[in-house]
Amino acid sequence: MWKNILKTFVKARKHSLSAVFLLAWGGFFTAAATAATAATAEDVALAEARANAEGKASDLGGPITINGSIALQGFFSQMSGGKSAAYPYGVGDVVLDAKISENVRAHILILAYQNLLKMGVERQKIDEILYEAYIKITNVGGKPIAFIIGKQSVAFGQTLMKLPNAGSDPSIAVSSYDQVIGLTVSLEKVGFFDLVDASVFETGQGDLKIGTFDGGAIRLTKKLSDKLKFQVSAMHAGKGSSPDEDRQSVGFVFKDGGWTFWAQGIHMAGNSYFPNSNWSAIVGGEYKWENQRIVVQAWYLSEGFTSVSIGYSVEVSQDVFLSPEVRYITRADGTVETQYIVLTSYRFHVN
């Protein structure tokens, strides 16, 4: 049923939306051009960007807000066969929010990295470092309706990225779908649900080209209590010559004081990273106290892939964070890998 609904939804809109996006994409860069000159692209990492921007996206005391971080990441991997690898990276992020009017803002997230073992600077294309670029319009017509248009993450899954080094978490391949150009509409208080998010998008991930709008997603959220939230979502991604991909998810998030727990089950077909799997489960928990937090997460994939991670993060001095993480991975062929990751980062905020 989900699949048929999403296919019909996408088919009815994909032709007309192409013209709309050509105009909107140009409008985005016109509106955000002045703001973009206020920040330069730092070497960046997705996990730091998410953590740094969390809770600050709507805190626009002035017309422009800039969050970011510069970090050094050490990665060491030990395989069951005795093989090992080590890589130091320079990473960071810049998250820029420009307040265009009372209900309109532009958002840019720039991500990049540098392998410190390689000589010279790795030249990344603008498509690769511009991870998100969209305009968000809220309170449309004076009602609790919002539109997001541009390069974004679609309305699927819980969008929880709690691990200190979440950017390298392998479960992202099934729990989210991002870096696509699309339109997301959010409506509050729709029937039984407190929030309904729906996306139409083109499925060419990672670039700035406007392709065929052959993807659709919907996410329904219900607060069962002040501490417990329930979400169900579905997504269909048409991929041209590649097999279509379909996903459905159901999950819970529980928050109480410094504690946060989450669980999510995902059914899928046609995933390009894990084509032999048809379901997945993710469970995790986080505890925050003072300037510290600890996170534990486990992920299971039906083809026999498992990943168990434990991470810790502490603010060792003002805006300087130390975040070690250990990840234990078992693959379908029986190979076992242990990953050790340490991230030292400096975060900044300009308002």
Query: What spatial order of strands do you see in the largest sheet?
Result: 1-2-3-4-5-6-7-8-9-10-11-12-13-14-15-16
What is the 3D form?
A: globular
Order of helices and strands: HHHEEEHEEHEEEEEEEEEEE
Query: Roughly how much helix do the residues carry, as a percent range?
Result: 10-25%
Give the averaged pLDDT, no decimals. Answer: 81
What's the alpha carbon Rg, rounded to whole Å?
A: 20 Å
Stretches where pLDDT falls below 50 for ≥5 residues? 8-48, 50-61
Distance between the termini: 46 Å
Largest sheet: 16 strands, antiparallel, barrel
Number of strands: 16
Strand content: over 45%
Number of helices: 5
Find the structural class using helix and strand composition.
mainly beta
Could you name the key traits of this structure?
16-stranded antiparallel beta barrel; 14% helix; single chain; 351 residues; globular; mainly beta
